[in-house]
Amino acid sequence: MYGARGRIGLMLPYDNAVIEPEFARTLPHGVSAHVVRTTKTDRLELAEELGSLERQAGYRGGLALAARGRNDFDTAKHLLEEALALIAEQGYWHLRTRLQLWLAETRFDQAHYDEAEKILEEAIEIARSQQRTLLVEQGERLSTKLLALKEN
Description:
mainly alpha, 2 domains, two-stranded parallel sheet, 7 helices, 2 strands
């Protein structure tokens, strides 16, 4: 009998062939995994279908970083602003702060220092209020970079 002690449902992207056997090895005796493979190749589309605002925002953030890597700053800015709008008033403070820091960096790259400074100040304030030490440190490093850029 399958899963006499318990059953776990697992939804995997169809193109990930590694996770299923790795996951199966971690299951205790008597627990079975029942896997469904998605037909979606676009993770953002899947997150939208599942209604996960946090995942949608996170994927947009990842796409924005890829756009920045291609020096496509306008697309990066647009994706980051979309991501922030998705999670506005939803909590997700860690993700929100990270997205704001990335947006501030993007605005630095475009030499929009005043806008970057405003975004950065809000991000640091949120990071401090949520006791996110590493994000505060990252924000302070960006703030130092901003001060140096403004002096030149």
